[in-house]
Specification:
Helix content is 40%, strand content 15%. The strands form four sheets. The protein has a seven-stranded mixed beta sheet, sandwiched between helices. Strands 12-13-14 form a three-stranded antiparallel beta sheet. By secondary structure, it is of the alpha/beta class. The chain folds into two domains: 242 residues, Aspartate Aminotransferase, domain 2; 127 residues, Aspartate Aminotransferase, domain 1, CATH 3.90.1150.10. The chain has twelve helices and 14 strands. The protein binds pyridoxal-5'-phosphate (PLP). Pyridoxal-5'-phosphate binds next to α3 and α4.
Length: 377
């Protein structure tokens, strides 16, 4: 049996006619840049997320960079980020000559540790960037409370959690990426809402911030050739927007398919002493961008080799933590400062999860995982 981490081809086959027609329409109109599909997608994306504005851009990394430009962060300002995340989160900060300040994550939930944030706040701290890692929201109520008390901006990195929902203690529910000042997401092909190339967007409630985000993504102009602020060139292609217009109505079904596959893994693995299944936060739904287990009592890397032998792909997100990356070494880059992240980099393992998982496929993966572990005991 052929198993993949994600099955983009199978997903495409089910919507092929609509996608092909949408792409062809863009080509017929040669409206490759800023075609009407981009504006349509922005409206639909905002509606889906129950947020006032969605501002499309070229990719998720740009979304983070533009968000920090919108909030007028200045060189030397400190921005708090989880150290267990994809590099893009810290990269956007460093590019603008801001200082990424790393914070360890929660041992069970993998998202930024709220208790650790407050210890890292200085007079230079200007923003917190929580990452809704693997598809589950960080503890936003705690983070927003700290931000309010210290007058900090909150930029959510929701590249992995589009469609996840957060429930506040008063019962209010909000979509991932709509709770802070700006939410940044990505439409990289393998993300939960993926296009067929690069794409990204910012989710914003405040009208002025949204206007500014749109300007910055478009060379700092709102009227052609009137460049009021320094911006960049970060557009969502019309072809990508057309594809996203076809796919957005399926996002809830896609997330549900991932949740169903995760529930089967949970059921099969929860009693195994060698596997910690992903913990669930009480305050967030989980859209399982990744199904990430912790491997205990057997060597994780040996398990990967066994799985590969048995035809089961798996991935480590992320094998080298940010504090040990050459480009991001800091005064406090010692491993002892980030014990949880250090541990996770040695024990986490993401198993195949996607929208096209069949029962046969998942049976094959589950028995392959169980056999591989047995062989290592
Ligand atoms: C994918 C991802 C990004 C960056 O998105 P791109 O569209 O690839 O630039 C940022 N943060 C996280 C957590 C991601 O997973």
């Amino acid at each position: 049996m052929k198993v993949q981490m994600v099955d983009l081809k199978g997903q495409y086959e089910r919507i092929k006619t609509d996608v092909d027609n949408a792409i062809q329409e863009v080509i017929n109109n040669t409206s490759f840049i800023n075609g009407k599909q981009v504006a349509e997608f922005a409206v639909e994306l905002a509606k889906y997320n129950n947020v006032n504005y969605a501002v499309p851009c070229a990719n998720g990394t740009d979304a983070l960079q533009i968000a920090m430009m919108v909030l007028n962060l200045q060189p030397g300002d400190e921005v708090i980020v989880p150290v267990h995340t994809y590099v893009a989160t810290a990269e956007a900060i460093a590019l603008l000559k801001l200082e990424p300040v790393f914070v360890d994550v929660d041992e069970k939930l993998f998202t930024i540790s709220v208790e650790q944030i407050e210890k890292k706040i200085t007079s230079k701290t200007k923003a917190i960037v929580p990452v809704h890692l693997y598809g589950q929201c960080a503890d936003m109520e705690g983070i927003l409370d700290i931000a309010r008390r210290h007058n900090l901006f909150v930029i959510e990195d929701t590249a992995q959690a589009i469609g996840a929902e957060y429930t506040f203690s008063d019962g209010t529910r909000k979509k991932a990426g709509t709770m802070g000042d700006i939410g940044c997401t990505s439409f990289f092909p393998s993300k939960n809402l993926g296009c067929y190339g690069d794409g990204g967007a910012m989710l914003i409630n405040d009208e002025q911030l949204a206007k500014k985000a749109k300007m910055i993504a478009s060379h700092g102009q709102s009227i052609k050739y009137h460049h009021d602020i320094v911006g960049c060139n970060s557009r969502l292609d019309t072809i990508q927007a057309a594809i996203l217009n076809v796919k957005l109505p399926y996002l809830d079904d896609y997330n549900k398919a991932r949740q169903e596959a995760a529930a089967i893994y949970d059921q099969e693995f929860h009693n195994m002493e060698e596997i910690s299944i992903p913990a669930r936060a009480s305050y967030s739904s989980h859209v399982y961008h990744q199904y990430t287990i912790k491997v205990k009592g057997v060597n994780r890397d040996a398990l990967i080799d066994k799985l590969t032998e048995n035809g089961i792909p798996s991935m480590i997100y992320y094998p080298i933590p940010l504090h040990r990356q050459k480009a991001y070494l800091q005064n406090n880059s010692d491993a002892v400062n980030y014990p949880i992240t250090e541990e996770l980099s040695k024990t986490v393992l993401s198993l195949p999860i996607h929208t096209e998982m069949t029962k046969d496929m998942q049976d094959f993966i589950v028995s392959g995982v169980k056999e591989s572990i047995k062989a290592l005991k």
